[in-house]
Design a protein that fits this description.
Oligomer: single chain
Membrane topology: Multi-pass membrane protein
Number of helices: 19
Cofactor: Cu cation
Radius of gyration: 63 Å
Function: May act early in the ethylene signal transduction pathway, possibly as an ethylene receptor, or as a regulator of the pathway.
GO molecular function, one term: ethylene receptor activity
Family: Belongs to the ethylene receptor family.
Helix content: 40-55%
Number of strands: 19
């Protein structure tokens, strides 16, 4: 900037010096009439000369003012890139101004110095003007480029302004949408959602009216369901689903501008001249059913949302407003879907509650029926076993007497009939407990071959009596000592073998016992069943084959159902209730096994096979001191054994006393719990065994047993044994829990009574023996 001022000062000084020189120097020789004193220039027209003089003065003044303005511009612009061009241009203007300024003196007589000064100034003006022109040749493209860049930047700035306006609009739309969404999703009730949507849209967009059209049940029409300005109408307002405007809206995902003259437009406005209208579809979610926790959904229909602008404002729908309507419609559709799922889940929950109530009521009724049945069975069990006890006991006593052949035959018939009736009672009670799940296996160690041979020995006389060949074989690899339910295994084996003997008129019955290793023949009706052989367990296979009646293929599956036999002639010719195989199947299933029947047809015999699982006993834990039952019984002498019998039934008292007297016992009988306690409290009453009936009036056997434990020390009280007809496990467990020493079930024969008393005396008190 300092250089600029120095250059400008130099230029002004040069101009002044030139003017002074022109005023003082005379004209050079050789040019006539150019002296400053004698010669003068005359103007042909004095007025024109004066005008040119004034013009030159004004032009010179203008030329001198322009550099001052450029100097001011350059001094105020700190980043102007072409200052040297400004200097050239300023010099050019100053020189032009000086040229016009000197020209003032040329309109009248002037000296030679004026001519020289004007010439010098014109030469300098020409030089500076040429230099400036040459410089502008290079600068003008750059200036044009700057101008183009300026225009480009202006265009970009305008675009940015438009984009900012769009962003602001979108932010405003988003803010409104968030507010609407927040208000809409505050509830999951469908009507609340739609009413909130109408109110909030009307506030945000300043709507005149807003309506929602819902499809009817069959989808043939749209019905006005919600409206911002509700009308009092008696008949629902409907529009056919096939209307052109309706189809256009349903088939378009975006919002649609609709004319006020269409069906939707006419019904959505209350005025003759209505404002601009827009409509958008609302997908409706239908939940068909819940499967695996997830509802099956499908978009079967659409609702329509119609929005009406005020007619007085003359507004038209703008793009961002339509976009906001579309976003809100999507949010409303989501909220409606959630509401639909909630409504369906609530309906499902209500149905489940009703079903649960019905199931609970049915369960209570079933439990009541089961309790009634169990009570009935318990009563019938007690009432049937009580006379059976007398029949079996007295019959066994008669068998011990001196009878004629005819008398013995009749007594044997009575014993067999009573045994058959007792077996029938046991089958009915066992099956009832199997059905309600109250029967539990009694797991204990036992000698497996001995139990199996006992079943064979019991069936062999029946087979020999019918002239049948009876084969019984136990494989060498069958273990001796196992853990399981000895009684249920014996019962199942006897039932299957007994059926084979019963339904075979001639031929043979063969019993094969072996260890099942998983490679044997299985049930052809259930080929997928295989024994899961695990360590510490063994699967026992019992196969009973006969040459008897045989079976039809269609009859085999029915035989394991209760009260079912092959045909009516079977029951008529052979008797039976049809419970045996049903009970065997239940027992086998409890022992983690399987049972099935195979037959080639009628008259070709049949084969019954059952497989059960038993637990093995390690050899080091097997007791080596097992002795036979006869040896155990012979070790206890029952003669003189003091026994107190307490029973409210006179027949039972007589029968039990007869059995004990036959065994040589010293028997005392009483008929109530109070008499029992009084008898035990008498001085010198040293009873060794107390046979106590559980079902007695006033004081039952349980209370008598508890009072005995409270009154008498262990050394002074007898062995307390329950004598009962109840066969359920709960009765036995309760007897043992209150401290009884054993349980004897009615009916009981002479031999069973002797065996039970010997076991009780051998084991002593607090061991809990159960027959």
């Amino acid at each position: 900037m300092a250089k600029f001022w120095r250059l400008l000062t130099l230029l002004m000084t040069l101009t002044v010096v030139t003017a002074v020189v022109a005023a003082t120097v005379t004209s050079p020789p050789g040019i006539p009439g150019c002296t400053c004193e004698d010669e003068a220039w005359a103007s042909p027209d004095e007025g024109m000369t004066r005008c040119q003089l004034a013009s030159d003065f004004l032009i010179a003044l203008a030329y001198f003012s322009i550099p001052l303005e450029l100097v001011y511009f350059v001094s105020c612009s700190h980043m102007f890139p072409f200052r040297w061009v400004i200097i050239q241009f300023g010099a050019f203007i100053v020189l032009c101004g000086l040229t016009h300024f000197i020209a003032i003196w040329t309109y009248g007589p002037h000296s030679y110095a004026v001519v020289v000064a004007q010439t010098v100034l014109k030469v300098l003006t020409a030089v500076v003007s040429c230099a400036t022109a040459i410089t502008l040749v290079h600068i003008i493209p750059e200036l044009l480029h700057v101008k183009v860049r300026e225009l480009f930047l202006k265009h970009k700035a305008a675009e940015l302004d438009r984009e900012m306006d769009i962003i602001k609009t979108q932010e405003e739309v988003g803010r409104h949408v968030r507010m609407l969404t927040h208000e809409i999703r505050m509830s999951l009730d469908r009507h609340t959602i739609l009413n909130t949507t109408l109110i909030e849209l009307a506030k945000t967009l300043s709507l005149e009216n807003c309506t929602v059209w819902m499809p009817n049940a069959d989808g043939t029409a749209l019905e006005l369901s919600h409206e911002l300005e509700r009308r009092l109408v008696q008949v629902p307002i409907c529009i056919p689903a096939g209307d052109a405007s309706v189809q256009l809206i349903v088939q378009t995902r975006a919002a649609v501008i609709i004319p006020p003259t269409c069906a939707l437009g006419r019904e959505s406005s209350h005025r003759l001249l209505s404002g601009a209208m827009a409509a958008v579809r609302l997908p409706l979610l239908h939940v068909s059913s819940f499967k695996g926790g997830t509802p099956e959904t499908y978009h079967a229909s659409y609702a329509i949302l119609v929005l009406v602008l005020p007619s007085e404002s003359g507004r038209q729908w703008r793009p961002h407003e339509l976009e906001m309507v579309e976003v809100v419609a999507d949010q409303v559709a989501v909220a409606l879907s959630h509401a639909a799922v909630l409504e369906d889940s609530q309906r499902t929950r209500d149905k489940l509650v009703e079903q649960n109530k019905a199931l609970q009521q049915a369960r209570q009724e079933a439990e009541t029926a089961i309790r009634a049945r169990n009570d009935f069975l318990a009563v019938m069990n007690h009432e049937m076993r009580t006379p059976m006890h007398a029949i079996i006991a007295l019959s066994s006593l008669l068998q011990e007497g001196n009878l004629t052949m005819e008398q013995r035959a009749m007594v044997d018939t009575v014993v067999k009939s009573s045994s058959l009736l007792s077996t029938l009672i046991n089958d009915v009670l066992d099956f009832s407990r199997l059905e309600d799940g109250s029967l539990i296996l009694e797991m204990a160690p036992f000698d497996l071959p001995t139990v199996l041979r006992e079943a064979g020995n019991l069936a062999k006389p029946m087979a020999r009596g019918k002239g049948l060949d009876f084969f019984f074989e136990i494989a060498a690899d069958v273990p001796t000592h196992v853990i399981g339910d000895e009684k249920r295994l014996l019962q199942t084996s006897l039932n299957v073998i007994g059926n084979a003997v019963k339904f075979t008129k001639g031929g043979f019955v063969s019993v094969m016992v072996s260890v099942e290793k998983g490679d044997g023949r299985m049930d052809p009706r259930q080929p997928g069943w295989r024994p899961a052989v695990t360590e510490g367990f063994v699967y026992l296979r019992v196969e009973v084959q006969d040459s008897g009646l045989g079976l039809r293929e269609t009859d085999i599956p029915r035989l394991f159902h209760k009260f079912v036999q092959a045909d009516s002639t079977t029951t008529r010719n052979y008797g039976g209730t049809g419970l045996g195989l049903a009970i065997c199947k239940k027992f086998v299933q409890l022992m983690h096994g399987h049972i099935w029947i195979e037959s080639e047809g009628l008259g070709k015999g049949s084969t019954v096979t059952f497989i059960i699982r038993l637990q093995l006993i390690p050899k080091q834990h097997v007791r080596r001191d097992r002795i036979s039952r006869d040896e155990q019984l012979n070790r206890v002498d029952l003669k003189g054994l003091k026994v107190l019998v307490t029973d409210d039934n006179s027949v039972n008292r007589i029968v039990t006393r007869r059995l004990l007297d036959r065994l040589g016992c010293n028997t005392t009988v009483v008929e109530s719990g109070h008499q029992c306690l009084a008898t035990l409290s008498q001085p010198g009453s040293s009873f060794q065994v107390l046979l106590l009936d559980l079902c007695m009036p006033e004081m039952d056997g349980y209370e008598v047993a508890m009072r005995i434990r409270q009154r008498f020390p262990p050394k002074d009280r007898p062995l307390v044994v329950a004598l009962t007809a109840n066969t359920d496990k709960d009765t036995r467990d309760r007897c043992l829990q209150i401290g009884m020493d054993g349980v004897v079930l009615k009916p009981i024969s002479l031999g069973d009574m002797s065996s039970e008393l010997c076991k009780l005396l051998r084991k002593g008190p607090q061991n809990g023996s159960v027959r």
